[in-house]
Amino acid sequence: MKIICIGRNYSEHAKELGNAIPDKPVIFMKPDTAVLKGNDFYIPEFSNDVHYELEIVVKISKGGKYIQKETAHKHYEEIGLGIDFTARDLQSDLKSKGLPWELAKGFDGSAVVGNFFKKENYNLESLNFSLLKNKDKVQNGDSKDMIFTIDDIIAFVSQYFTLRVGDLIFTGTPEGVGKVSENDILEAYLEEEKVLDIRIM
């Protein structure tokens, strides 16, 4: 199972981190060991600045290579929410040296994946999702604000990587990312339904 992640897919998030708005999807990956087991996230000892990034996650249900955008919708049946935890201090250091930043993105437990839901129950062209930290709303996203749609992403990624059943695609985070601290509680909502409840340890 591959975890393929899209960076800078919401223009306001790109701006808040001082990044240029991309003309092609920005891709990075997490290993399967990044998937968080349970609901407790432990801040790693190598970072003092771990950020939450709430995202729509797509589960691939039909594999393929060189998938066309027009048929990309046939390759997934379910969507959900996930959190891409990022060691921002480590990422900034690696980026400043021109180095890859997998260490800041792919560490154990850095990919929170919730339950998946049938896509036909939602309007994917305007899907609202939000994150509360200690009951305060910190992120509020809508899929209509994506620079690259889910189908765009599947078509682009499959030019480079063969997609297989069970692969996950994190589709990017909206603005409002921020630091987590010990004892924080993160709650994620897909439309009006709470689908994630994470405790920071």
Automatic annotation (TrEMBL):
Pfam families with a match to the protein in the record: FAA_hydrolase
InterPro entries tied to this protein: Fumarylacetoacetase-like_C, Fumarylacetoacetase_C_sf
Gene3D superfamilies the UniProt entry points to: Fumarylacetoacetase-like, C-terminal domain
Superkingdom assignment: Bacteria
Residue intervals of the Fumarylacetoacetase-like C-terminal domain: 2-190
Keywords carried by this UniProt record: Hydrolase, Metal-binding
GO molecular function, one term: hydrolase activity
Protein name: Fumarylacetoacetate hydrolase family protein
Organism: Chryseobacterium terrae
Organism taxonomic ancestry: Bacteria, Pseudomonadati, Bacteroidota, Flavobacteriia, Flavobacteriales
